[in-house]
Amino acid sequence: MMNQNNVLVELKGISKNYGQGQRETRAVENVNFNIHDGEFVALLGPSGCGKSTLLRMITGLMPPSEGEILYRGEPLRGVNEHATIVFQTFALFPWLTVQTNVEVALKARDVEPNARRERALKLLDLVGLDGFESAYPRELSGGMRQKVGFARALAVEPELLCLDEPFSALDVLSAESLRGELMELWSSKALPTRAILLVSHNIEEAVLMADRIIVMDKDPGRVVAEIPVNLAQPRQRKALHVLAMVDRVYAAVAGETPSESKELIGTAPGEGGKTQMLPHAPINAIAGLMEFLAEEGKRADLYIVGEKLGMELDEFLPAVEAVELLGMATLRGGDIELTSLGETFAATTILARKEIFAQRIRHLPMFQWIEQELRKVSSQRLPQEFFLDVLEKEFTPVEAERQLDFAINWGRYAELFEFDDDRDELYLTTNGAQELPV
Ligand code: ADP
Ligand code: MG
Hints:
- The protein is an alpha/beta fold.
- The protein has 16 helices and 16 strands.
- It is about 40% helix and about 20% strand.
- The radius of gyration is 25 Å and the shape is elongated.
């Protein structure tokens, strides 16, 4: 049971403003949460929601504008000696060896030379850098450099280890193995560390590692949900209860995007009223645009994006329309900006993308209609003619065919239904056979 005694960090009504006067902006607003002894907490949210700002305040690098931070029940003043941060970029001194890079942290805390050396060597061994003590950072891979970063942070034996997106600059495999090694050190209690606070914008990573996920959103930065992850370690990415948790966290993230607004929904084909036309955007154009935006930073000039992507306008504009329709980006005065959901989509795995995409398109009448019709028949199959006949009541024959083509292209990607090329039939897949979300 959690009680007051095992609370390590307590954030009480924390707000932070940057800048002054006219330029003052509110980075985070009224954030309240605790971190307990023994806990691994993940802070999850889109870029700009104030995750790094919170870490800086928790480690005492800067004070909050409002509210109070308690560490072991005492108000925090100045630098928090019990906490360290590992940053996304490795922040190593290029002119120092691996070992000296680790020792630097100890020197700053007046540890005497022999003890420094001993501790640095032990930690390098612990993170698997045995034999690389006298190498220079440039001689190491990204994954190994980040291990030096971990060793340096751990050298001061912090009670609270803060990790600011420590895996996001690494390639997929290095990130994966470093995550595994960290979890092993943490679970085996080989570290003196009492708690870990991981900043991430990767839902899967948070679900695989943390005991509790604090979901944030931006404008202003704030906490929107807290989700305990009561699953035994080690966790397998494909395990059903892990996937279910990933879904649940997605829902918490997605819940914050204004997407069912506007008149974009329309009616289902065959019903009275105007049917929402699907933009003529193939999935690969949509995914390409999202990835590009994620790399450009959250906001970009539409014209420049179009030019840089090298897409033809008749492909680019429908892709823009599609990402807006799906609530993944918003258009504002010639700029396109990813929503929280859009950033999540761009940053995550293909599998998780399919899930987000499925969740989004199921809100469109076109897909509700197709799924419903397929579910009505016991074989869960219908010839494409069936759908074309209805679509042709609202669109020209050419457009009706295009609409069905795009619906199939999107539906297949989302794994809601499949298309049988031999028989020209649509049929439900397992995903599609599940109940619609309410
Ligand atoms: P995250 O780590 O979640 O991406 P940050 O904590 O870096 O978010 O930033 C939160 C908000 O505060 C953003 O709007 C950012 O532009 C702003 N911000 C961060 N650092 C500064 C700073 N030193 N001066 C002014 N604004 C800042
Ligand atoms: Mg940050």
